[in-house]
Design a protein that fits this description.
By secondary structure, the protein is of the alpha+beta class. 27% of the residues lie in helices and 19% in strands.
Length: 97
């Protein structure tokens, strides 16, 4: 017994094994629910921080550092700043290989 789901078109299809659908078209409903009813505050803040990080960094895309008047400034070049990555990690489920 089991089933497979195919997303070959907008509606997709479900195939049952060891069970039967009743005759007719459009006579089943598949309901899927996921996520949070309210976005957690730390995740919302991490999103705001990431937007700010990307907005500020738009002027230095491709630059790792900048020298001005004998002083060198290094830029963070990671995809996410560390505090944002820490929040993402708390909400990420990792499956061991």
């Amino acid at each position: 017994m089991g089933y497979t789901i195919k997303n070959t078109d907008a509606a997709g299809s479900i195939n049952l094994y060891g069970l039967e659908f009743t005759e007719g078209d459009n006579n089943i409903v598949v309901q899927y629910q996921a996520g949070y009813a309210v976005v957690p505050a730390d995740l919302a803040q991490a999103c705001i921080d990431l937007v700010s990080y990307r907005y500020t960094g738009r002027q230095r895309i491709g630059h790792k550092s900048k020298s001005l008047a004998g002083e060198t400034v290094a830029f963070i070049t990671s995809a996410f700043p560390e505090p944002v990555q820490n929040v993402i990690d708390r909400y990420t489920r990792k499956i061991p290989l």
